[in-house]
Design goal:
It comes from Paenibacillus radicis (ex Xue et al. 2023). 44% of the residues lie in helices and 14% in strands. The protein is an alpha+beta fold. The longest helix has 27 residues, at 129-155. It is built from 7 helices and 7 strands; from the N terminus they run βαβββαββαβαααα. It has 2 domains: 6-51 and 128-193, no CATH class; 62-124, no CATH class.
Length: 200
Amino acid sequence: MSEAIYHHLVPRTYLKSWCHYGYSAHAYNREGQKIRDGVNVNNHFGYNHYHSLRVGMSYLEEEDLSQIFKELSGFRVEYEGRYLEDLKEWNEKFYDRENWELIYPNGNRVPKKKKNSLFQSIEHAALPVIETGWARKYEGKWNELLRVIEQKVLVEEEDTEIPEFYKGLIMKMIVSIGWRSERSSEVYTEVLNQIDNAVN
């Protein structure tokens, strides 16, 4: 599977229903006037790395942090007169990286230009695990699910019931789509705000 970099706010499986040729759709403004013809749904309606895990996020696992900070493997970080203990602490203090002293494994201090270059690499590190998981679990199964539904509803006359497994997959897909939008779920946002208020 290729690395998922461009993350759609509206899943392509949903957008495909409005495509008039391959992956092309018409684009309209809010007043209903056509502004573009032939918008490719593969590179519209999303952002690069919108769902990706990045440095500074509070819920990163040790494995995620190892990948994000791989450029600093073997280095030590001195901050406010002490060494930061682990990757979790590096992640928590990365917002104030201008005040870090980076130390090479041999004990020498990293020059400012090199330090800035390393920080830039870390800032650009993005782990698309959420998007690739979505693609593997749902988008990759959508065509199969669609064929089953069409077979049951359009072809078979007597038994039009969809197997329980597919009902569950449909429900999961609907719920997942609800959590993918730019505004996300109000409940989810409320919970995040409560956590943010408790931490700060």
